[in-house]
Write a structure and sequence with these properties.
Blueprint (H helix, E strand, L loop, with lengths): L1 H60 L6 H14 L5 H11 L5 E6 L9 E5 L4 E6 L28 E8 L8 E5 L7 H4 L2 E4 L1 H5 L18 E3 L1 H14 L6 E5 L3
Parallel strand pairs: 1-8, 6-7
Antiparallel strand pairs: 1-2, 2-3, 4-5, 4-8, 5-6
């Protein structure tokens, strides 16, 4: 009886040991599985983070003109430190950020369209050298007497803010100048195809009426000016604006 009891005890100890070993191995396997899943999850998360960072860096370093960061810093500096009507202040800004420091354009939509409101300035001589009537966009509820402003695609409205002249307007309208918006209020200018171009009704206008007629076929947010001013502006751009872009500020000074 004692021998059987001893054998039974040994058997139970062996079985319990085997079961404990099996359970321990199972626990280790589960722990390893969890560890592997954690490592895989971390690797996937790290990979996604690297991809997101790469996309963000690409976006930050590249834009229409090659540098979003520079544009953002310039935009902040412009609104905080520059008086857009002070030509010396504008010239210092242009020199600081690499824009053209010889010429500068203001379009004051606060003046009625029957008055000349598109001005080109010589920043060295601090004087106005060109002036033109300018049609505003026809969209977003704009009327002849009062323009409305929008940055939305398809709005057909004028946009306020700081622009830079970037080159030939378009394939269908090569005799024009394309604009890049440098502000949050006109950031879609390039996508909207905003140009400086001429319009016959503006070229023929001599101030006989208080307002230029509004025409969606002629301005869907573009700066439509007279033909002679555009000729001079394009010649000026060809000589001075290709390497350092000329700034244009559109404002509504009521």
């Amino acid at each position: 009886m004692k021998g059987n009891s001893f054998q039974s005890l040994v058997f139970r100890l062996v079985v319990n040991g085997l079961l404990a070993n099996f359970a321990s191995r199972k626990q280790k396997q589960k722990a390893m599985t969890r560890k592997k899943k954690t490592i895989i999850g971390c690797c996937i998360g790290l990979l996604l983070l690297v991809v997101a960072c790469a996309v963000a860096i690409e976006w930050l370093l590249r834009s229409e003109d090659g540098n979003v960061v520079k544009n953002y810093i310039a935009q902040c500096y412009w609104h905080k430190n520059v008086d857009p009507w002070n030509l010396k202040s504008v010239q210092q800004f242009a020199q600081k950020f690499g824009y053209n420091d010889d010429y500068y354009i203001i379009c004051d939509f606060g003046r009625r369209s029957g008055l000349k409101r598109f001005y080109v300035y010589d920043l060295n001589d601090k004087e106005r050298i060109m002036a033109s009537y300018c049609m505003h966009g026809s969209g977003s509820g704009s009327t002849e007497t009062r323009p409305q402003f929008s940055n939305k695609l398809g709005s057909n409205a004028s946009s306020l803010g700081l622009y830079a002249l970037t080159g030939i307007g378009s394939r269908s309208l090569r005799f024009s100048k394309r604009l890049q918006g440098l502000d949050r209020t006109n950031s879609n200018a390039h996508a909207r195809g905003i140009l400086i171009h001429s319009a016959g009704v503006v070229s023929r206008f001599n101030g006989e009426n208080k307002y230029l007629p509004i025409d969606g076929r002629l301005s869907q947010g573009c700066f439509a000016i007279d033909y002679i001013t555009l000729l001079r502006l394009m010649a000026m751009y060809k000589l001075h604006g290709r390497h350092k872009r000329i700034l244009l500020w559109a404002c509504y000074k009521s």
